[in-house]
Amino acid sequence: MDQTLIAGTMDADAEEQALLWKKSLTRSVSRADDELCSFRTCLRWMCVDQSDPWRTTLCWSVFLVLAFGVPILSHLILWCPACDPKHQRPYDLLVEVSLTSISTLSFLSLSSFVRKYGLRRFLFLDKLCDESEKVRQQYSHQLNSSFRLLSCFVLPCFVVEIGYKAWWYVYGTAKIPFIWNAYVSDTVSCILELSSWVYRTSIFFLVCVLFQLICHLQILRLQDFTKVFQAESDVETILREHLRVRKQLRVISHRYRAFIISSLIVVTISQFASLLATTRSTAHINLFKAGDVAMDDSSETAGFMQLCSVVLLTGLLICLRSAVKITHKAQAIVSHAAKWHICMTCDSFETLDCETPTRVSANQRVSPMSSSSATEPDSDDEAADEDDFDEDLIVPALASAASFQKRQALVTYFEHNKAGISVFGLMLDRSSLHTVFGIELSLVLWILGKTVGIS
User: Fold this and answer.
1) Helical (H) or strand (E) element with 422
2) In contact, 427 and 420? CB cutoff 8 Å
3) What is the Cα–Cα distance from 74 to 96, expressed in whole angstroms?
4) 291 or 231: which carries more pLDDT confidence?
5) Percentage, residues of the chain above pLDDT 70
6) How many Cα neighbours within 13 Å face the side chain of 85?
7) What span, in angstroms and rounded, lies between the C-alpha atoms of 26 and 74?
8) What are the residue ranges of helices labelled H in 65-145?
9) Inter-residue contact 131 to 217 (CB < 8 Å)
10) Start-to-end C-alpha separation, the chain
11) What residues pair up with 426 in beta bridges, in sequence order?
12) CB of 282 closer than 8 Å to CB of 265
């Protein structure tokens, strides 16, 4: 009988735990009306949705056509080395390789993220049930506006690209090779080139914006976490919450470190190749030749404000700025903890100073004595009074000392365990950005010294 009751109790506990587990995963289930509905719709329009085998096949087919097929055909057909020098495109190969390389890196990274973690886990939506209502609302708003932010980066560059392509095809229509009809061929070719350009650029900016979105969630969590230092909080609770934040930052670093370092390498190689190509002594640059590389509205001579470079550098700066910002917020916890430790220590000493005379006067009132007994107290009564007084004084002092040691240990832990976004052990903070900028500037000056003679 007892065994039956025990088994029934265990079954009830197991069912209760299963219900709690299902309840905790309610936000992780993909529903038609959840916060990812509009997000998935935008992904489908961009042809990067891989939620089922059919869409995955379509996604890879579009990627191969627009990222590789169209650029290769465009370069082979429109390169035209025998054409008028005004309509040759000697720098087209550099632009196409740069955009195809960064879009391939972005597409493979995004596909790996979605396939390995799923869209909800990748965006940390399964962790929102543990956050406050304010964090959930702000992150949902940021999630819904992520594609508007993406359009703010893509559309200005796309407008410039449309202007250049239209100009190039209109002025070069008599010299460009065509099939059947020159105007139809030019229109189809221009549309395919623009589609390929906007697709590759959007893929790269999408991965960068998603990284910024994930970092924004951690910034919201850190802002919510710093509120524990505005009141008397338990040290163990603060440490447990900080370990949870630090773990998620480590997960983000592990997922994005390959993309960040690979993007930095691709952008660096692309920029140095473009600088070397445009500053060599035999280079003759005008708007028709180097429109994708550099555009200058004031004259036909190409400047060094490069359209392709703007796209690559903007995406890279989005990632680096987001990483540095969240690292700065995470490392600022040390100052918050130190201020909290100082304030709590000062309050504890003030409380102890205020409570000590109060307890002494109370003891004097509890044992009223005559004037004679006050001048010549009994030894046993005096010893009892001294023991009571020592207990009242020492116990708060010991508790205050223990609390002080816990807070001091917490501040020391924060100082020696700084959280943030790291790339293979290198913390992405302001000092690391200064180091990267110094290395890049040294390489630029070295290339300019070899090409135009800057020393």
Assistant:
1) strand 422-423
2) yes
3) 9
4) 231
5) 68
6) 4
7) 49
8) 70-78, 92-117, 119-122, 133-144
9) no
10) 94
11) 423
12) no
| DSSP string of 213-257, one letter each residue | HHHHHHHHHHHHHGGGGGS---HHHHHHHHHHHHHHHHHHHHHHH
Lowest mean pLDDT among 26-35, 314-323, 420-429: 26-35
* Torsion sign (Cα): 32, 33, 34, 38: positive
Where do we find the tokens 């995406």? 315
Q: Tell me the C-alpha distance between 408 and 402, whole Å.
A: 10
**pLDDT tens digits for range 365-419:** 333 334 344 444 444 444 444 444 344 433 344 456 677 888 888 888 888 888 8
- The SS3 call for residue 281 is coil
Q: If we measure between CA atoms, which residue out of 119, 128, 332 comes closest to residue 221?
A: 128
Choose between 149 and 274: higher pLDDT: 149
Q: Mean pLDDT in the chain?
A: 74
Q: Which amino acid type is present at position 233?
A: S
In this structure, the number of other CB atoms found within 10 A of the CB of residue 291 comes to 24
C-alpha–C-alpha distance, residues 350 and 344, integer Å? 10
Which residues, 6+ apart, have CB-to-CB distance to 77 below 8 Å?
177, 189
**CA–CA separation, 204 and 39 (whole Å):** 17
Task: Please give the backbone phi and psi of residue 119, each rounded to the nearest 5 degrees, phi first.
Answer: -65, -40
Which residues does 311 contact at the CB level (< 8 Å), separation at least 6? Answer: 99, 157, 201, 204, 205
pTM for this structure?
A: 0.76
The values of phi and psi at residue 302, to 5°, are -75, 135
